[in-house]
Automatic annotation (TrEMBL):
<dbReference type="InterPro" id="IPR010982">
    <property type="entry name" value="Lambda_DNA-bd_dom_sf"/>
</dbReference>
<feature type="domain" description="HTH cro/C1-type">
    <location>
        <begin position="20"/>
        <end position="81"/>
    </location>
</feature>
<protein>
    <submittedName>
        <fullName>Helix-turn-helix transcriptional regulator</fullName>
    </submittedName>
</protein>
<dbReference type="InterPro" id="IPR001387">
    <property type="entry name" value="Cro/C1-type_HTH"/>
</dbReference>
<dbReference type="GO" id="GO:0003677">
    <property type="term" value="F:DNA binding"/>
</dbReference>
<feature type="domain" description="HTH cro/C1-type">
    <location>
        <begin position="87"/>
        <end position="143"/>
    </location>
</feature>
Length: 231
Protein backbone atom coordinates (compact mmCIF):
# COMPACT_ATOMS: atom_id res chain seq x y z
CA UNK A 1 0.00 0.00 0.00
CA UNK A 2 1.23 3.52 -0.77
CA UNK A 3 0.07 6.97 0.24
CA UNK A 4 0.47 10.31 -1.46
CA UNK A 5 1.33 13.50 0.41
CA UNK A 6 1.65 16.80 -1.45
CA UNK A 7 2.24 14.95 -4.70
CA UNK A 8 5.00 12.75 -3.25
CA UNK A 9 4.55 8.99 -3.05
CA UNK A 10 5.06 7.77 0.50
CA UNK A 11 5.21 4.06 1.36
CA UNK A 12 3.21 2.86 4.33
CA UNK A 13 5.07 0.72 6.83
CA UNK A 14 4.70 -3.07 6.76
CA UNK A 15 2.44 -4.68 9.39
CA UNK A 16 4.70 -4.82 12.44
CA UNK A 17 4.39 -7.55 15.08
CA UNK A 18 5.18 -5.58 18.23
CA UNK A 19 4.88 -8.49 20.73
CA UNK A 20 7.28 -10.58 18.62
CA UNK A 21 9.89 -7.79 18.71
CA UNK A 22 9.76 -7.63 22.48
CA UNK A 23 9.79 -11.42 22.85
CA UNK A 24 12.84 -11.77 20.61
CA UNK A 25 14.71 -8.99 22.44
CA UNK A 26 14.03 -10.48 25.85
CA UNK A 27 15.07 -13.94 24.63
CA UNK A 28 18.47 -12.47 23.80
CA UNK A 29 18.73 -10.84 27.24
CA UNK A 30 18.86 -7.37 25.69
CA UNK A 31 17.43 -4.11 27.01
CA UNK A 32 15.91 -1.48 24.66
CA UNK A 33 19.12 0.50 25.05
CA UNK A 34 21.16 -2.41 23.72
CA UNK A 35 18.91 -2.60 20.65
CA UNK A 36 19.21 1.15 20.08
CA UNK A 37 23.01 0.90 20.33
CA UNK A 38 23.09 -1.97 17.83
CA UNK A 39 20.92 -0.04 15.36
CA UNK A 40 23.34 2.87 15.45
CA UNK A 41 26.61 0.95 15.64
CA UNK A 42 25.76 -1.64 12.97
CA UNK A 43 23.40 0.26 10.68
CA UNK A 44 24.00 3.95 11.35
CA UNK A 45 20.43 4.57 12.50
CA UNK A 46 20.05 7.21 15.20
CA UNK A 47 17.21 5.59 17.11
CA UNK A 48 16.89 5.95 20.86
CA UNK A 49 15.69 3.39 23.42
CA UNK A 50 12.37 5.24 23.71
CA UNK A 51 11.67 4.54 20.04
CA UNK A 52 12.42 0.84 20.51
CA UNK A 53 9.97 0.79 23.43
CA UNK A 54 7.35 2.58 21.31
CA UNK A 55 7.76 -0.07 18.60
CA UNK A 56 7.29 -2.87 21.12
CA UNK A 57 4.16 -1.23 22.57
CA UNK A 58 2.63 -0.80 19.14
CA UNK A 59 2.66 2.99 19.42
CA UNK A 60 4.89 3.32 16.37
CA UNK A 61 6.10 1.02 13.61
CA UNK A 62 9.58 0.87 12.07
CA UNK A 63 9.98 1.85 8.45
CA UNK A 64 11.35 -0.65 5.95
CA UNK A 65 15.04 0.16 6.52
CA UNK A 66 14.53 0.23 10.28
CA UNK A 67 12.72 -3.10 10.19
CA UNK A 68 15.57 -4.77 8.31
CA UNK A 69 18.10 -3.33 10.74
CA UNK A 70 16.04 -4.37 13.77
CA UNK A 71 15.90 -7.92 12.44
CA UNK A 72 19.68 -7.88 12.13
CA UNK A 73 20.14 -6.70 15.71
CA UNK A 74 17.67 -9.28 17.02
CA UNK A 75 19.20 -12.10 14.97
CA UNK A 76 15.99 -12.96 13.16
CA UNK A 77 14.45 -12.61 9.70
CA UNK A 78 12.32 -9.54 8.89
CA UNK A 79 9.38 -11.89 8.43
CA UNK A 80 9.52 -12.80 12.13
CA UNK A 81 8.84 -9.15 12.98
CA UNK A 82 5.85 -8.80 10.70
CA UNK A 83 2.20 -9.62 11.01
CA UNK A 84 0.41 -11.21 8.08
CA UNK A 85 1.72 -9.55 4.88
CA UNK A 86 -0.76 -8.58 2.19
CA UNK A 87 0.88 -6.45 -0.49
CA UNK A 88 3.73 -7.44 -2.79
CA UNK A 89 6.01 -5.06 -0.95
CA UNK A 90 5.13 -6.58 2.44
CA UNK A 91 5.72 -10.12 1.19
CA UNK A 92 9.03 -9.06 -0.34
CA UNK A 93 10.21 -7.36 2.85
CA UNK A 94 9.12 -10.35 4.92
CA UNK A 95 11.56 -12.44 2.90
CA UNK A 96 14.36 -9.87 3.19
CA UNK A 97 14.45 -9.50 -0.58
CA UNK A 98 15.31 -6.33 -2.46
CA UNK A 99 13.11 -5.06 -5.26
CA UNK A 100 15.93 -5.45 -7.79
CA UNK A 101 16.50 -9.08 -6.80
CA UNK A 102 12.81 -9.91 -7.05
CA UNK A 103 12.56 -8.21 -10.44
CA UNK A 104 15.50 -10.30 -11.66
CA UNK A 105 13.93 -13.52 -10.39
CA UNK A 106 10.65 -12.87 -12.19
CA UNK A 107 12.42 -11.80 -15.38
CA UNK A 108 11.38 -8.16 -15.32
CA UNK A 109 13.09 -4.79 -15.56
CA UNK A 110 13.61 -3.31 -12.08
CA UNK A 111 11.92 -0.01 -12.86
CA UNK A 112 8.90 -1.83 -14.30
CA UNK A 113 8.58 -3.99 -11.22
CA UNK A 114 8.93 -0.99 -8.88
CA UNK A 115 6.12 0.85 -10.67
CA UNK A 116 3.84 -2.17 -10.25
CA UNK A 117 4.73 -2.54 -6.59
CA UNK A 118 4.17 1.17 -5.96
CA UNK A 119 0.80 1.09 -7.70
CA UNK A 120 -0.25 -2.15 -6.01
CA UNK A 121 -1.28 -3.60 -9.37
CA UNK A 122 0.54 -6.51 -10.96
CA UNK A 123 0.71 -6.59 -14.77
CA UNK A 124 3.15 -9.44 -15.39
CA UNK A 125 2.53 -12.17 -17.92
CA UNK A 126 1.73 -15.80 -17.08
CA UNK A 127 5.36 -16.87 -16.78
CA UNK A 128 6.29 -13.86 -14.64
CA UNK A 129 3.29 -14.40 -12.38
CA UNK A 130 4.29 -18.01 -11.77
CA UNK A 131 7.87 -16.90 -11.05
CA UNK A 132 6.59 -14.24 -8.63
CA UNK A 133 4.54 -16.79 -6.70
CA UNK A 134 7.56 -19.11 -6.49
CA UNK A 135 9.99 -16.38 -5.46
CA UNK A 136 7.74 -15.16 -2.63
CA UNK A 137 6.35 -18.63 -1.75
CA UNK A 138 2.78 -17.42 -2.24
CA UNK A 139 -0.29 -19.62 -2.33
CA UNK A 140 -2.71 -18.83 -5.19
CA UNK A 141 -4.96 -16.95 -2.79
CA UNK A 142 -2.09 -14.95 -1.28
CA UNK A 143 -0.88 -14.15 -4.79
CA UNK A 144 -4.28 -12.82 -5.79
CA UNK A 145 -4.43 -10.54 -2.75
CA UNK A 146 -0.85 -9.36 -3.18
CA UNK A 147 -1.35 -8.49 -6.84
CA UNK A 148 -4.55 -6.56 -6.14
CA UNK A 149 -6.70 -8.52 -8.59
CA UNK A 150 -9.48 -9.79 -6.37
CA UNK A 151 -12.24 -7.80 -8.05
CA UNK A 152 -10.97 -8.79 -11.48
CA UNK A 153 -11.13 -12.46 -10.48
CA UNK A 154 -14.73 -12.08 -9.32
CA UNK A 155 -15.77 -10.48 -12.60
CA UNK A 156 -14.05 -13.17 -14.67
CA UNK A 157 -15.64 -15.96 -12.65
CA UNK A 158 -19.11 -14.48 -13.00
CA UNK A 159 -18.67 -14.21 -16.75
CA UNK A 160 -17.32 -17.76 -16.97
CA UNK A 161 -20.30 -19.11 -15.02
CA UNK A 162 -22.94 -17.28 -17.03
CA UNK A 163 -21.46 -17.42 -20.55
CA UNK A 164 -18.79 -19.52 -22.32
CA UNK A 165 -16.44 -20.71 -19.60
CA UNK A 166 -13.69 -21.84 -21.97
CA UNK A 167 -13.02 -18.23 -22.99
CA UNK A 168 -11.88 -17.43 -19.44
CA UNK A 169 -9.30 -20.17 -18.91
CA UNK A 170 -6.46 -18.16 -20.42
CA UNK A 171 -7.16 -14.87 -18.55
CA UNK A 172 -7.33 -16.78 -15.27
CA UNK A 173 -4.13 -18.69 -16.05
CA UNK A 174 -2.35 -15.33 -16.35
CA UNK A 175 -3.57 -14.36 -12.88
CA UNK A 176 -3.01 -17.60 -10.99
CA UNK A 177 -0.25 -20.24 -11.31
CA UNK A 178 -2.64 -23.18 -11.51
CA UNK A 179 -2.53 -26.05 -14.03
CA UNK A 180 -4.67 -25.35 -17.09
CA UNK A 181 -6.50 -28.63 -16.68
CA UNK A 182 -7.37 -27.75 -13.10
CA UNK A 183 -8.72 -24.36 -14.14
CA UNK A 184 -10.78 -25.94 -16.90
CA UNK A 185 -12.34 -28.43 -14.48
CA UNK A 186 -13.17 -25.72 -11.95
CA UNK A 187 -14.66 -23.30 -14.48
CA UNK A 188 -16.73 -26.04 -16.06
CA UNK A 189 -18.06 -26.99 -12.63
CA UNK A 190 -18.95 -23.38 -11.80
CA UNK A 191 -20.71 -23.03 -15.15
CA UNK A 192 -22.68 -26.25 -14.64
CA UNK A 193 -23.65 -25.42 -11.05
CA UNK A 194 -24.87 -21.95 -11.96
CA UNK A 195 -26.96 -23.10 -14.91
CA UNK A 196 -28.42 -25.97 -12.89
CA UNK A 197 -29.70 -23.44 -10.39
CA UNK A 198 -31.10 -21.20 -13.11
CA UNK A 199 -32.76 -24.13 -14.90
CA UNK A 200 -34.69 -24.85 -11.74
CA UNK A 201 -36.32 -21.44 -12.08
CA UNK A 202 -38.10 -22.38 -15.30
CA UNK A 203 -39.07 -25.91 -14.32
CA UNK A 204 -42.67 -26.79 -13.35
CA UNK A 205 -43.24 -26.36 -9.66
CA UNK A 206 -40.06 -24.34 -9.13
CA UNK A 207 -40.03 -22.35 -5.92
CA UNK A 208 -40.06 -18.58 -5.95
CA UNK A 209 -36.55 -18.59 -4.51
CA UNK A 210 -34.92 -20.46 -7.38
CA UNK A 211 -33.92 -17.29 -9.20
CA UNK A 212 -32.49 -15.88 -6.01
CA UNK A 213 -30.44 -19.06 -5.67
CA UNK A 214 -28.66 -18.24 -8.93
CA UNK A 215 -27.98 -14.68 -7.82
CA UNK A 216 -26.68 -15.86 -4.47
CA UNK A 217 -24.36 -18.27 -6.27
CA UNK A 218 -22.85 -15.39 -8.29
CA UNK A 219 -22.50 -13.24 -5.17
CA UNK A 220 -20.43 -16.00 -3.55
CA UNK A 221 -18.70 -17.26 -6.65
CA UNK A 222 -15.17 -16.51 -5.46
CA UNK A 223 -15.83 -18.58 -2.34
CA UNK A 224 -17.08 -21.43 -4.52
CA UNK A 225 -14.02 -21.08 -6.74
CA UNK A 226 -11.51 -21.45 -3.91
CA UNK A 227 -13.42 -24.38 -2.45
CA UNK A 228 -13.21 -26.20 -5.79
CA UNK A 229 -9.54 -25.32 -6.27
CA UNK A 230 -8.59 -26.71 -2.88
CA UNK A 231 -11.00 -29.66 -3.06
Amino acid sequence: MTLRSYGVRVHSTPPFNAPAARRLREALGMAPGHVAYGLQAQYGLRIGPETVVAWERGLRAPESRELTALAGVLWCSPGELLGIPHSLREHRIARAMGADELARRVGMDSSTYRRMEDAGRWRGNERQTAALAEALSLTPRELLTATGRGQELTELLRSAATTRWRAYVRPLAKMLPLPRRRLEDVLQRLHSDYHARMAATSSWGASAGSGQSGRDFLDRIEEHFWALVSG
